[in-house]
Design brief:
By secondary structure, this protein is of the alpha/beta class. It has two domains: 100 residues; 155 residues, Rossmann fold, CATH 3.40.50. Helix content is 53%, strand content 12%. It is built from eleven helices and seven strands. Strands 4-3-5-6-7 form a five-stranded parallel β-sheet. It has a two-stranded antiparallel sheet with strand order 1-2. Helix 1 runs antiparallel to helix 2, helix 3 runs antiparallel to helix 4 and helix 10 packs across helix 11. The radius of gyration is 25 Å and the shape is elongated.
Length: 271
């Protein structure tokens, strides 16, 4: 997920509101609503440029040409009148691109998981400790924000667990891969890992356990640098990213306490 998702979503909603209030033809004069639309368009360009460079370029060019300033001569002794007309083609491009962005950055559906935990069930102690200390007590996320099959309520009896896993991978923002020796030896975990890399616009964060070397996690470390799950600096980076992504008010005193408890847990259980 784009770390600026919430800001992008707010700009889209504001732009949609402005667009709904504008009725443009080829002789329309620019007014406060038009200038507001231009300002919103310029704000969103740097936020989406990495995800969708072509759309960002269209918006950038449209905002450059949307105002057509004309100087109209008056009587011999009167000053000329300056009027700003709206370029209807550029306006149409902005309307279309914001419709596209509205679908590319959808509002979060109620009760959808923000974080998917890919893990081995044999690592239950560490995974549950990470969820409790780092994500819930540390970051303030709710249990319902986190999809993890250690919680038996996330998949109902009779459901196809494979389709549930894939669907929740698609709808989440972050995928945490908890890399251990158990994870490496699990065919299910390796399938989840492959499925995660096949998804677009997902923030995939591999965390290796302390008792496994970086060189032992294979191609994953070549494609994307993994972090040691007990590395306090990496946990700090994760906390900062989650706070920004979900507009959480940071509480570093509390997080440091929870972080230290989790690191101690990994030392005891990862000999």
């Amino acid at each position: 997920m784009n770390k600026n998702f919430n800001e992008i979503r707010k700009i889209i909603d504001s732009a949609k509101q402005v667009l709904n209030q504008l009725n443009i033809d080829y002789n329309s004069l620019a007014g406060p609503k038009t200038y507001n639309l231009v300002a919103l368009s310029r704000q969103i360009v740097p936020l989406i440029k990495e995800d969708y460079p072509a759309i960002a370029n269209i918006i950038g060019e449209s905002t450059r040409i949307i105002i057509n300033r004309q100087t109209i001569p008056q009587y011999q002794y009167g000053p000329p009148i300056v009027k700003d007309y709206i370029n209807a083609y550029a306006f149409g491009d902005l309307r279309t691109t914001f419709k596209i962005l509205d679908s590319l950055y959808p509002h979060r559906k109620p009760n959808t998981y923000k974080i998917f935990i890919s893990h081995s069930s044999a690592d239950e102690t560490i995974v549950n400790g990470f969820i409790k200390s780092i994500l819930m007590l540390g970051c303030g996320l709710k249990r319902t924000d986190i999809f993890c099959t250690l919680d038996h309520t996330v998949i109902r009896t009779g459901d196809d667990f494979r389709s549930e896993i894939i669907e929740n991978m698609k709808s989440c923002d972050f995928i945490f891969c908890m890399i251990s020796e158990n994870y490496r030896m699990s065919e299910v975990c390796q399938n989840e890992l492959g499925a995660a890399w096949a998804l677009d616009n997902k923030r995939i964060l591999p965390f290796k356990f302390p008792n496994i070397k970086f060189t032992e996690i294979g191609f994953l470390n070549t494609v994307k640098q993994a972090a040691d799950i007990s590395d306090t600096s990496k946990l700090d980076e994760l906390y900062d990213e989650l706070c920004k992504s979900y507009e959480i008010q940071p509480d570093w005193v509390n997080f440091n306490k929870q972080k230290n408890e989790f690191v101690n847990l990994t030392k005891v259980n990862c000999q």
